[in-house]
Structures are given as C-alpha cells and as structure tokens.
Predict the structure.
Amino acid sequence: MAKNRLSSKSAPVPAEFPLSFFACQNPNCADFNKFNAGNLSIAERIGKNKALRRLYCETCGRRFSEREGSLMAGKKLPEEVVVRIIKCLGYGCSIEATADICEVDPRTAFGKSRQTCRRFPPPTTGETTTGD
Ligand SMILES: [Zn+2]
C-alpha cells in the first residue's frame, strides 16, 4: 500500500484542475487565453509542498505558474481567504466590511476587488440603447 509521503503536519493538497482549465498567459502567443487548446503540459512542480504546477506552452515555449492570470496569482493569502473575499464582494459587501469579515487589510480587499473586475468584466448583452 502506498503511504502518503507528506507528513501529517503539512497542509492538504488541493485538488488539481485538468490542463484544459488553463490557457497560455503570454499575450503574444497564438494560443493566448485559448482553453483546452492542447498546447500545455506540466513542466515542473513548484511552491510549498510542490503543490503548484509550472505549465509549459508548446506554442510559444513560455513557462508559467498555474496561478498566473488567476485571482490567486502572486498572493500569499490562503485560498479559502481569497474565496471568502470574492464571495463577500460578490454579495455587495463594502471593502471595509469585506476586510472586517475576512480579517484582512482593507487594501487587500480593495486589491482583490480591482483584480476581480479586470479578470471578470461585466458581460456585454449586445443590446443597444438607441431608444427606438
Ligand atoms: Zn503560449
């Protein structure tokens, strides 16, 4: 029986998303932001407990963290805190309320708010308001 090599004091490894959930983050790549394009492979494991994957784009040759371009990119916050911040903001809590509920600095909540707006802009309906 294979025994888990991680000690009991290490954090549980979150479930990994399939590669089809990721897209190349190089804006100059022909497969930029194309999901399930078959251009990505796992280059190596990185980070604490090797829990993150560095992905390789066969189209442009660039390597990038699986978190790059996501709301988890470059942040040291635990995933559950980021999820709580996004939920609070999604329910319309103010920056101050979100910071208080999530026990983070208001600047952190504000930064997540800006990052979310850039990543998920409001959908365009295609409707025009010409009034006729
Ligand atoms: Zn690429």
Remarks:
- The first helix runs from residue 79 to 90.
